[in-house]
Amino acid sequence: MKSSEILQNLGAMLLSGKVDVVDCSGVLGPETPLLKLPPDFAKDTPAIEIHRISEYDSNGPFWAWNWLKLGEHSGTHFDAPHHWITGKDYADGYTDTLPVQRLIAPVNVLDFSAECAADPDFLLTIDHVKAWEARHGAINAGEWVVMRSDWDQYADDEAKFLNADETGPHTPGPTAEVIEYLIGKGIVGWGSQCIGTDAGQAAGMPLPFPAHNLLHKANCYGLASLANLSQLPAKGAILIAAPLKIKRGTGSPTRALALVPKG
Fold first, then answer.
1. Could you say which of 77, 83, 212, 216 is catalytic?
2. Parallel, antiparallel, or unpaired: how do β-strands 77-79 and 251-253 relate?
3. Residue (of 194, 197, 184, 78) closest to 138 by Cα position
4. pLDDT of residue 21 exceeding 90
5. Catalytic status, residue 83
């Protein structure tokens, strides 16, 4: 089949409803949970603000629009390689220079929601991933890999979403060995339903923040605070995760969408 016919068929399937479009993003607003960092370690991203410019009034009689104040890594967001020191030297590591061909790709959805419900500090290991591949098929080069934890169920409650105590945040994530394994397979990026791509306790790992350190060192991407992964199959969906084209941007809030065939 010619590539033009494939796209025509996809268009027809979208119009007929044979392919669903699943919104994998949370709502972005003042109540959106944001990462909290120790004050003696680093500055936090600013709180999200939405300000009205006009709404069919004297400030703009026929139109409504707003201006926003927010950090690049707010809500459902994309991490570009330049976000981390290990990826700082990539010329194509910014949101305005990255190759957009990589942003739309098949997605592997690793469902470990039951394990995460039982243990908020659950860590995904290579054994978990290999068992998933044995059941669903190999993870291939150029594909997205996301871990389903169903953590988005807490997105309306920042305290539950961050799940922090005096020892730090407690949220699931990958081990360094898993990220190394996936990079070795040539993935485009890794995604999480939690506040960041790493586990909550990742600062204390032998390699601190392995998802950030290793992904961006390999010029790969990260996605955080994803939503509705329960609506995606283990394999067979296409993920579209495009950041805003911010000049020398290290990341961006994103409207992540998945194309899911019905049946």
1. 83
2. antiparallel
3. 184
4. yes
5. yes
